[in-house]
Amino acid sequence: MSVFAAAVRESGASLRTVFTNTALRRLMLAFGGSLIGDWAYATAIAVWAFGVGGAKVLGIWAVVRFLLMAVTTPFAATLVDRYSRKRVMVTVDVARFVLLVVIAASMASVPPLVVFVLAAVVAMLGTPFRPAQRSLLPSLVSRPEQLTAVNGTSSTLESLSFFVGPALAAGLLTVTSVQVVLVFDALTFVWSAALVSGVHTVARTVVPVPAVAVASSAPPPTASSPPAEGDPVGPAPTRPRRWGFLRETAAGFVHIWRNPDLRMVIGLTCAQTLVAGASAVFVVAVAFDLVHLGAPGVGFLDSMLGVGALVGGFVALSRASRQQLGLDFCVGVVLWSLPLVLVAIWPTAAVAVLVMVLLGLANPLVDVNLDTLLQRLTPDHLMGRVFGTLDSAYIASMAVGAAVMPLLISLLGLQWGMAVLGTAVTLMVLPAVPRMRRLDLTLRAPEGLPLLQSISMFAPLDQPTLEGLARQLSTVQVPAGDLVFDEGDEGDRFFVIESGLVEVSHDGAVLRREGPGEYFGEIALLRHVPRTAQVRAIEDTVLRGLDSTTFLDAVLGNLEAVTAAETVVARRILAG
């Protein structure tokens, strides 16, 4: 009971983190509302497609739709990094609303092929939305555990939609028609657009500034210049503003390819989504051929997925503070695959329901930890494209799963086809577990992170950059009475006081005393001059130091950080 109570407390804290923040609350409600409509729509279209041509047509439709989305997503995600993420989300919502109304109005009078084409266009139009949403979230939180909490809340809402959307579709299909479900989905896009449009975000002006800019009056580069591949935060002022769309799109692929941790995470994601793609076929086949409930059975099984996902969302939220992202992610992938074996052993309706609940339970464990891993491992200026690359990769693997499942059913039967698929994916996960455990140790918030977060010139830096700086902090212990440095010494490090007290003096006159959380040493580094003051410990002091190169790369790579640093330097020069 104590473990359960602790889980409830942690889940409540995670939810409060989100819903006390106006911007996050609006994003989450918009996301949840539109997802309920999406799942209702997906259930209705699947039932309609199965009615047109059975499992074969449904499988072909799923493969074609997934492939089109996989091709579209990287290009759409490039727009996420180039334009306002909020504006991209609203535009996507409005476009999908209009097209769904058109489909609903014409479905009864046009050939099925036309409906398939229009439905595919709706799917492609939606590809920028999730990369934009996930890329926007890190800018609205301040600590790693908050990011996990936000992703956990997002996954919980997604889990709720797994249950409510298909259940709603099942009810509507019983008493109305597919067209009514499409109109309902269209209205949820209006809901989403209205909420997202009210989110207030800070304009992204993160661009690099060369070292001379600190002491120069030259104007900084404009925020409209797009970042080029390989830059820490954007283009240098001397670079042309022209950009190659294909090169920009490829930057997400390149970043993932060069990072073995990201390659592994996305590889395991594709293994999991192989099963997800196959589920587009086997859920409908189970509903018609195993459970014998027909069209309402599809909604019932999908809603059981939602029941499990609600429980899984609770579990993911309760584990947010533990930051075991890699290990929990692996557990989620295994739970998404291994339960399929149960259908081969006990091919009953009850077991089919149990399998759907277990798959749902696994979904938040995968999604929450996957999103947080990518957000922690990716710089802001590439985040949209990295998420776009992820989406493209897993949508392509879903297409493979949707194509393979009908073949497995025809060769092995429904039950054993599911068992073979589940076993194969599980075996792919096991060798990755040790590396994922090491990744968890790497991603734990460094000890010095709170010190850096309290410093004004570091406040504009994104979370991955701050964590990287914190990991490079060195510890310097200075006994009472000893010098840290003297006037005229070469400036080689920036210092933050972890504990103790120092005295800063110039030409023998005491300027100030500084204690825990305060900092010094930035003037010599930013101005490229010798030390302008003497710093002496007046009690035993522990300092955290950043070498000059690391400090300058971080501060001078961000226009807002440069401005904050200039303010600090000017204030101290005037005070001294």
Describe it for me?
- The chain contains 21 helices and 6 strands.
- The protein is an alpha+beta fold and 576 residues long.
- The protein has 2 domains: 2-199 and 248-443, Up-down Bundle (Growth Hormone, Chain: A), CATH 1.20.1250; 449-575, Sandwich (Jelly Rolls), CATH 2.60.120.10.
- Helix 9 packs parallel to helix 14.
- The longest helix has 61 residues, at 22-82.
- Mean pLDDT is 78; it is low at 203-243.
Topology (elements, then pairings):
Blueprint: H1 2-19, H2 22-82, H3 85-106, H4 112-125, H5 129-136, H6 144-175, H7 178-197, H8 245-258, H9 260-290, H10 294-318, H11 325-335, H12 341-345, H13 349-377, H14 380-412, H15 414-429, H16 433-443, H17 449-453, H18 463-471, E1 474-478, E2 483-485, E3 493-506, E4 509-514, E5 519-520, H19 522-527, E6 534-547, H20 548-555, H21 559-575
Antiparallel strand pairs: 1-6, 2-6, 3-4, 3-5, 3-6
Helix pairs in contact: 1-6, 1-10, 2-4, 2-5, 2-6, 2-7, 2-8, 2-9, 2-14, 3-4, 3-5, 3-7, 5-14, 6-10, 6-13, 8-14, 9-10, 9-11, 9-13, 9-14, 9-15, 10-13, 11-13, 11-15, 11-16, 14-15
Key traits:
elongated, six-stranded antiparallel sheet, 576 residues, Jelly Rolls, 21 helices, alpha+beta, 6 strands, Growth Hormone, Chain: A, single chain
Q: What is the CATH topology classification name of the largest domain?
A: Growth Hormone, Chain: A
| Biggest beta-sheet profile | 6 strands, antiparallel
Distance between the termini: 60 Å
Count of separate DSSP helical elements: 21
Can you tell me the CATH architecture of the largest domain?
A: Up-down Bundle
Strand content: 5-15%
Question: Tell me, what is the CATH class of the largest domain?
Answer: Mainly Alpha
Mean pLDDT: 78
Helix content: 55-70%
Radius of gyration: 27 Å
Name the CATH superfamily assignment of the largest domain. MFS general substrate transporter like domains
Poorly predicted regions are: 203-243
Output the structural class: alpha+beta
The secondary-structure element order is HHHHHHHHHHHHHHHHHHEEEEEHEHH
How many strand segments?
Answer: 6
Shape: elongated
Number of domains: 2
